[in-house]
Amino acid sequence: MDVFEAVQKRRSIRAYDSTPIPNEKLERILEAGRLAPSAGNIQPWHFIVVTDAEKRKSLAKTRYAKFLVESPIVIVGCGNRKASPNWYAVDVAIAMQNMVLTATSGGLGTCWIGDFKEDKVKEMLKIPENFRVVALLAVGYQREKFDIYEKVSHFIRRRRRLEKIVSVEEY
Questions:
Q1: Whole-prediction pTM value?
Q2: Which terminal CB of the chain, N or C, has fewer other CB atoms within 10 Å?
Q3: Which residues contact 30 (CB under 8 A, 6 or more apart)?
């Protein structure tokens, strides 16, 4: 699968089966994050791989993250705000998008999570003070599940056409 095909196929997966992720696939996903560009090549990121069921259950205690209990892996993307105060969040986001596309190309589903209690995540995972939690990433094999909301929302909220979101030279 080429990169553009991965971009086209990627969607947010909120139902996972219990199949473990092979270490080779996980390492490739993490390597994709490591290879991401960053401002000044500072690489202000640190990624925590969470597989422990109790920790995933704790991460799932917010409204939009309940399915994290099913996801066999949750990657917590952290940014070093002292190393890169202006760009850590953007740099971590770029690295995590590399991970999303790599997971997709490897037949895995992902979902980017922004709904978390940072203080609780930092305490549970012993994240140093100079790091901020930027996002969580669920990773796993998709479990087929009929979800009427998902079906309807994808129909109603179609992607806008290119000419609606791009201008040349001026807005």
A1: 0.91
A2: C
A3: 47, 49, 75, 99
Q: Which DSSP state fits 67?
A: G
Does residue 19 surpass a pLDDT of 80? yes
- Per the CB < 8 A criterion, the answer to whether 107 and 114 are in contact is no
Q: What is the pLDDT of residues 43-81, one digit of tens each?
A: 999 999 999 999 999 999 999 999 999 999 999 999 999
Compute the CA torsion angle 90, 96, 98, 102 (nearest 10 deg). Answer: -170
Distance, CA of 48 to CA of 74 (rounded, Å): 8
Task: Report H helices in 61-127.
Answer: 88-105, 118-125
Sign of CA dihedral 84, 85, 87, 93: positive
69: its two tokens: 């209990």
As a whole number of angstroms, the distance between CA 67 and CA 51 comes to 14
Residue 133 burial by CB count (10 A; 0-12/13-18/19+): exposed, middle or buried?
buried
Q: For 127, list phi and psi in degrees, rounded to 5.
A: -80, 130
**pLDDT beyond 80 at 3:** yes
